[in-house]
Specification:
Helix content is 56%, strand content 15%. It is an alpha+beta fold. This is DUF4956 domain-containing protein.
Length: 229
C-alpha cells in the first residue's frame, strides 16, 4: 500500500507526467500510422486469401513494438531481458504472400520510430513508403509480360509423341517445352505434360480444339499459371 502511495506521489512529478503523456502520444501515433499501413495493404492486396486477422495483427504489432521501445529506452539490461523472453515464442503460421512479411516489418518499423520518439521520421516514413507502394502497385512493377501455362495431353499409346504437335505448337505458341511423359489408363495411353506460352490473340479454346484433332479427341487440360505479385 505504501509503495502504491509513493507511486502516486511520484506520478505527480512534472517530469513523470510529461513522460506518461509522451508515451501515450507514441502509442496513439503508432496506432494511427498502423491504420494507414493496413489501409494501404487492403488497397494493394492482390492475393487469393485475404485475412482480416492479419490486418489486425499489423496494428497490434505496431503498437506493441512501440510500447516495447518505450520500456527499453536506454536500459540495456531490460533489452536483453526482452530478447530472452521473446526468444521462446514460435510463430508457426506460414505467410501466403511474401509481401505480407514486408507489411509486418512496415508496421514494426513505424512502431519502433514512435517508441523512440522520432515522430516526424515515423510520419514521413509511413507516408513515403505508402506512396511508393501505391506507385509500384499502379504501374504493376515486376510483372512478367507472359506467363507459362501447363498443358496436359492424353494420346493413344500407338502414336509417336516426339514430333506429333510440333507444327501445331509452332503456329499457336511462342514457347513450348515437353516436361514429362507418363503412361495412364493401365498403360494404354500416354499423358504428355508441356509448359506453353500462347501467342498473342490465341485462346486456350483454340489450342484445345486443334489438339483434339490430333489426339483422337482424348482428354486435354490447361492449368493456369499462379500469379503472385
Amino acid at each position: 500500500m505504501n509503495q502504491f502511495i509513493n507511486e502516486l506521489q511520484y506520478f505527480s512529478d512534472f517530469t513523470t507526467r510529461s513522460a506518461i503523456i509522451e508515451s501515450f502520444a507514441a502509442i496513439l501515433l503508432s496506432f494511427v500510422l498502423s491504420l494507414l499501413i493496413t489501409w494501404v495493404y487492403r488497397r494493394t492486396y492482390t492475393g487469393g486469401q485475404y485475412s482480416q486477422s492479419f490486418v489486425h495483427t499489423i496494428i497490434i504489432m505496431s503498437v506493441v513494438v512501440s510500447v516495447i521501445m518505450i520500456v527499453i529506452g536506454n536500459n540495456i539490461a531490460v533489452a536483453f531481458g526482452l530478447v530472452g523472453a521473446f526468444s521462446i515464442i514460435r510463430f508457426r503460421s506460414a505467410m501466403s504472400d511474401p509481401k505480407d512479411i514486408a507489411f509486418i516489418f512496415f508496421g514494426m518499423a513505424a512502431g519502433i520510430a514512435c517508441g523512440l520518439g522520432f515522430y516526424t521520421l515515423a510520419i514521413l516514413f509511413a507516408i513515403t513508403l505508402s506512396l511508393l507502394i501505391f506507385i509500384l502497385h499502379g504501374v504493376d512493377y515486376g510483372k512478367k509480360d507472359s506467363f507459362k501455362k501447363t498443358l496436359k495431353v492424353t494420346i493413344p499409346e500407338n502414336m509417336h509423341y516426339e514430333k506429333l504437335f510440333d507444327e501445331l505448337f509452332t503456329r499457336l505458341l511462342d514457347e513450348y517445352t515437353l516436361l514429362q511423359v507418363e503412361t495412364t489408363n493401365l498403360g494404354t495411353m500416354y499423358q504428355l505434360t508441356y509448359t506453353i506460352v500462347p501467342k498473342e490473340g490465341v485462346t486456350d479454346k483454340q489450342i484445345m480444339d486443334e489438339i483434339r484433332e490430333h489426339n483422337a479427341n482424348l482428354k486435354i487440360s490447361i492449368v493456369m499459371p499462379s500469379r503472385t505479385f
